[in-house]
User: Fold this.
Amino acid sequence: MNLDSIDLTLWLAGATMEFALLSILLYNRIYRSLPVFCFFLGWCLLSDIGMALAVRLPNAYLPATLASITGDALFQLAILAELGKAVLCHNHVDPPSKAVLVLLALIACLIAGVLNKWRIPTEYPFLQMVYMVLLQVFAALRVVFLLTLVWWTSVQKLRWPTRELQILTGLGVYIMVTLCVVVLHTHKLVDVGYHRLDQLLVASYLFALGYWILASTTKVAKTE
Assistant:
C-alpha cells in the first residue's frame, strides 16, 4: 500500500467515524449538555472535506492546513473548558481559586516547554515556518490546559461524570500524541519519514473517535 492509499484510507475512516459519532450525539441530544464537543465534530467533518478540496488547488494546501490546525486547537481548548464547567456542575462546587489554577498552569507550562524545547525552524520557507511554530504553540497550549484541568480536579478530589471522563480520555490521548509528533517533527529526533508521523497522529485521532463511538453506544452509568 503506497502513501496515497494510506492517506485515502485514513481520510475515509476519519470522515466516516466523525459522521457516525456526530449522528449518535445528535440523536441522543448530547448537544444540549456538550454543545462545543458536537460543534467540534461538525467542524472536523467540514475541515476534512475542505482539505480534500485544497489538495487539488494550487498553493491552497498550506494555508488551508494553517486554518485547520488553528480551528482544531481552539475547539479542543474550548472542549477542555466545557468539560471543566461540567465537572463544576456535577460536583456542585464553586469555580476554582485563580491562584491554584495559575500555579498548576505554570507547572504545566514548564513541563510542556522542557519537552518541546521551543525550537524555531528558520531553515523552512516562511509559511512552513509559521506552520511549525503554530504546531508547537498549540501542542504545548493544549497540554497545559489538559494537565491543569486534570491536576485541579485531582487536588480538589472532584468526581467526573462518566461521559465527560470518556471524552477527556480520548482527547487526552490525542493531545499527548500531538505533542510527541510535534517534538519529533521540529527536532528531527527519529529517522522516520515526516509524513509517517502525520499518519501516526491521524491514527491516534481515529483511536479517539473509535473510543468515543464505543462509549456513546454503551449505556452510561449514572453517578450520584
